[in-house]
RNA sequence: CGGGGUAUAGUGUAACGGUAGCACGAGUCCUUUGGGAGGAUUUAUUCUCGGUUCGAAUCCGAGUACCCCGACCA
């Protein structure tokens, strides 16, 4: 992508409405744009990052046997009444009416819809286990929206649902999901801790949240620094606050954290309410056991920025950067332009994602400042200076060191 | 939903009740090109509606939007 053509406009100062670092930086670098409180557009840079994240999540979901589907956001009231959540989940359920005054929920989550969907298709134990997921917009009618992408009204979420014959099988798959989630967060450049939590309006069973430690987090957990055990503070009644880790007896500390994922063993709650049965080996009717597993992708993006930035801008982890390489051309003359263009094409031919700053009306300082703000992991500079040594300059966004390398050696670092 | 705050150009900000200004951005031209460079020039329905006043960005009232705290919250 040539930067002269890229649809974006950076800002030196963030709009005063933004308070936390991730919100400020994502606005300044023009990855996102706010339409209303809790509602955002993803611009080309932001959407590229979003798609990278989606792709990581798809890969990991597919690798544990998930099949992708796409369910509607409009969901009939009757379905929600069957599980009691038309009332229990308000807030954060959005409720709307069509012109015939028929009421709908705007999907906050999809247990109702998916249970209804699989009911006709899961008939015997031979149809199980089953895992379906989707990546889709969710709507939350919460009291308040804060922190930019951290808590939005409309946001994209990956939700996975699993169906099982028995608890054993559910447990087995549940653990697979936990491992897949670990991989997802690692690939996004985050250290997420698994934290025991309560299921809220979803289930009474113990659930696991994935929490990323951060000062600006709205959640409070106690965390063992030795073995990484953690538990959400809302789960603990005050008198029983543990002083030592129940797993390894290490010291525990209270921390703020951002919830970047949640996994639930739903058991038979929804299969019971919505009559999801299967025939066992002896022909008997049995309730399907379910699990559900969510990751908010917008929040994930904000969290990555929250954890990976400095005073100059974002520092994208490799796998979720909008581009792999930022190629910058300084000084507009034939020689420099030709060399940079050639390098740009060579890299593209090798399958490298390059943002090429080909602009001729911007000073070097402005280009560098913008590159730091956007935060692409590898920066390459071609200028008169480097060409004299038949070289180009390489710098990693997260390091201060710059080094010159010969054009012929470029493949060694990419 | 309770409490608090803010609203002036794309962004950030000034202006006692008396000419809407500055910086950055953006446009045009020139000069520049290794850390948001310099010069010239252009760039506004002061959130909306109503009130007070000779005169309102400024005071008053209502509304709206946004932000923060609380409650809420996969």
Walk me through this protein's architecture.
The chain is α+β, with helices and mostly antiparallel strands. It folds into 2 domains: 21-310, BirA Bifunctional Protein, domain 2 (2-Layer Sandwich); 323-412, Rossmann fold (3-Layer(aba) Sandwich), CATH 3.40.50.800. Helices cover 28% and strands 30% of the residues. The chain is built from 11 helices and 23 strands. It has helices at residues 21-28, 44-63, 77-82, 85-88, 111-119, 167-187, 269-273, 297-307, 334-349, 364-374, 384-387, and strands at residues 32-36, 39-42, 67-68, 74-76, 94-97, 103-106, 130-139, 154-164, 192-197, 207-213, 219-224, 230-232, 252-267, 277-279, 285-287, 289-296, 309-310, 313-314, 325-329, 354-357, 378-382, 391-396, 402-406. The chain has a 5-stranded mixed β-barrel. The protein is elongated and about 80 Å long. The model has no long low-confidence stretch (mean pLDDT 93). The structure holds one RNA strand of 74 nucleotides.
Radius of gyration: 25 Å
From the spread of the alpha carbons, the general shape counts as elongated
**Can you name the CATH architecture of the largest domain?**
2-Layer Sandwich
Helicity, in percent? 25-40%
CATH domain class name of the largest domain: Alpha Beta
CATH fold category name of the largest domain: BirA Bifunctional Protein, domain 2
- Major sheet summary line: 5 strands, mixed, barrel
Number of extended strands? 23
Name of the CATH superfamily of the largest domain: Bira Bifunctional Protein, Domain 2
- Domain tally: 2
């Amino acid at each position: 992508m040539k930067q002269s053509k890229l649809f974006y406009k950076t800002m030196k100062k963030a709009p005063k409405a933004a308070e936390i670092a991730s919100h400020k930086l994502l606005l300044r670098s023009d990855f996102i744009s706010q339409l209303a409180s809790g509602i955002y557009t993803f611009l080309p840079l932001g959407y590229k990052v979003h798609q990278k994240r989606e792709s990581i999540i798809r890969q990991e979901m597919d690798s544990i046997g998930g099949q992708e589907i796409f369910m509607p956001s409009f969901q009939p009231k009757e379905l929600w009444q069957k599980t009691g959540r038309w009332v229990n989940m308000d807030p954060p359920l959005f409720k709307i009416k069509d012109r015939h005054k028929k009421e709908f929920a705007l999907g906050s989550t999809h247990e109702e819809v998916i249970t209804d969907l699989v009911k006709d298709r899961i008939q015997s134990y031979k149809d199980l286990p089953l895992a379906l997921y989707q990546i889709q917009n969710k709507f939350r009618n919460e009291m308040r929206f804060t922190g930019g992408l951290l808590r939005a009204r409309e946001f994209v979420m990956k939700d996975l649902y699993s169906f099982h014959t028995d608890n054993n099988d559910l447990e087995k798959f549940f653990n697979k999901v936990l491992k897949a989630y670990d991989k997802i967060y690692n690939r996004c450049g985050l250290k997420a801790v698994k934290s025991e939590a309560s299921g809220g309006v979803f289930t009474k069973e113990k659930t696991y949240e994935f929490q990323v430690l951060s000062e600006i987090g709205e959640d409070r957990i106690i965390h063992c620094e030795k073995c990484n055990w953690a538990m959400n503070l809302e789960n603990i009644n005050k008198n029983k606050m543990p002083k030592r880790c129940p797993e390894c007896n290490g010291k525990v500390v209270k921390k703020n954290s951002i919830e970047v994922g949640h996994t639930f063993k739903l058991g038979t709650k929804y299969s019971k309410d919505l009559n999801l049965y299967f025939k066992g080996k002896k022909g008997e009717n049995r309730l399907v056991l379910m699990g559900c597993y969510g990751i908010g992708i917008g929040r994930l993006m904000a969290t990555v920025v929250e954890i990976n930035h400095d005073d100059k801008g974002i520092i994208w982890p490799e796998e979720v950067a909008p581009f792999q390489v930022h190629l910058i051309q300084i000084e507009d003359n034939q020689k420099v332009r030709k060399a940079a263009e050639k390098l740009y094409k060579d890299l593209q031919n090798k399958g490298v994602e390059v943002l090429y700053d080909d602009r001729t009306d911007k000073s070097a300082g402005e280009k560098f400042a913008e590159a730091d703000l956007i935060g692409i992991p590898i920066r390459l500079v071609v200028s008169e200076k480097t060409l004299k040594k038949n070289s180009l300059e390489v710098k990693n966004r997260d390091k201060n060191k710059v080094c010159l390398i010969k054009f012929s050696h470029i493949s060694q670092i990419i």
